[in-house]
Amino acid sequence: MGVGGGMKVSCVVNGKARAVDGVWEGESLLYMLRERFGLYGSKNACEQGECGSCSVYLDGTLVCACLVQAGQANGRSVVTVEGLDGGTVQQAFVEAGAVQCGFCTPGLVVAAHDLLERMPHPTDAQIREALAGNICRCTGYAKILDAVHRAAGSG
Amino acid sequence: MQFLQPATWSEALAMKAANPEATPIAGGTDVMVEINLDHRRPTSILDLTRIRELGEWGPVDGMLRIGAGVTYTRLIDELGDRLPGLAMASRTVGSPQIRNRGTVGGNLGTASPAGDALPPLLASDAWVELASKAGTRHVSVREFFTGPKRNAMRKDELIAAFLVQPAPGPQQFSKVGTRNAMVIAVCSFALSIDPGHRRVGTGIGSAGPTPLRAVAAENFIQGELDWEGRRPVSGATLNRFGKLVAEAAKPIDDVRGTAAYRRHALAVLARRCLSWAWGAA
Ligand SMILES: Cc1cc2nc3c(=O)[nH]c(=O)nc-3n(C[C@H](O)[C@H](O)[C@H](O)COP(=O)(O)OP(=O)(O)OC[C@H]3O[C@@H](n4cnc5c(N)ncnc54)[C@H](O)[C@@H]3O)c2cc1C
Ligand code: FES
Ligand code: FES
Q1: What is the ipTM of this complex?
Q2: Residues of B with CB under 8 A from a CB of A
Q3: Cβ of A48 and B36 within 8 Å?
Q4: How far is CA A13 from CA A42, A79, A115, in A?
């Protein structure tokens, strides 16, 4: 711990090595991504794992960035919506009309990407289960289901 | 706040001995919520995610020893066939994001009466392996929960693993919530049948200060089941079993449900779990 507190965190974000000093020990990966790395794609809504708008990959695993303590990302690789190879999913969301205010969209795009990596042709039930941790207050979800089917090439 | 990040298990135990107040963090799905919402300000955090052993599992003397850091997702994928009851409960935890991070060690650490992994561990008579610099001890999960969000772990100890028998027979888990995903249980019930020893284990969640066993219900049903002929359980026996499970609960009225509703729902869950499980025995 340096003067004035805080710790150093080094990790790879979207393929690029990043390091910051003075990170508060209770800080979340989400705060670090947004406020220290300027990556505002991952949204901050509930900070309690309920909404999924902060979904990112940590070493290839889908997680809520708000529940990862910043130091836990030390030496790990993080992929946010900005660095995602998610063009197909994003385009499908646009075409299906699955975006209204857009606040939930980055998290949903990352979670849908993760689903399609694991299950290239999910059923409605599988999509609902996989996206249960992502809340959307606008669309009513029907168009989000359409978008995922479309991205899977079956819509 | 201090951040401790041991690379090995022995380092973790040494750090815990030197900093008994340190808050361990695994998946962070309980700890980070408390920090983010300012409900908890630990003096120091001990990150356990670097310790390889905590993520390992394997057979030990006929039991399965499962590291405290194995996530729900891995339990479902890797152990679903050997521990079907615990896997069913794990599938009801949160969302994929939560199951990818959350661990049974963390569920035991939090020791909430609503912890979904806990009723299946009670029903299958699991053991918790606690370790400190001074040594290792095993505590029966039946003695592990000492009060609401309290457990038998000492300040210098960490949870290394839990030990459980691979399912000796059918197991079931059932949970009542306001929707199908992302809910804290209103109440839950776990059942494990061991035909070889003619034993039945139970676990009740979210209906008391701690997860509970329904001992009278276990004793009753062990004597009633037709272990030889495997005849179906009669309606009267199912009802009596359900009633004894409901009587073993110690529920309260809270925002999620009333005590009366919980008792009623538990009787229903117990009857269903028993008929499903016995049908598969
Ligand atoms: C959105 C959301 C939904 C949820 N849904 C559910 C649900 O449906 N069912 C359910 O049961 N829970 C649920 N939870 C709670 C939580 O996910 C579980 O309790 C989980 O098992 C905690 O595991 P963790 O590894 O994240 O624990 P952490 O948050 O890292 O730790 C939890 C506690 O255990 C201690 N601890 C962790 N590991 C150890 C160890 N090895 N030794 C000693 N102490 C340790 C910590 O100090 C802390 O007190 C939910 C949480 C969120 C945020
Ligand atoms: S901000 Fe992380 S889940 Fe809501
Ligand atoms: S589009 Fe507004 S929250 Fe989903």
Answers
A1: 0.96
A2: 1-3, 5, 25, 27-29, 31-33, 35-37, 41-42, 44-45, 47, 49, 94-98, 100-101, 180-182
A3: yes
A4: 13, 6, 21
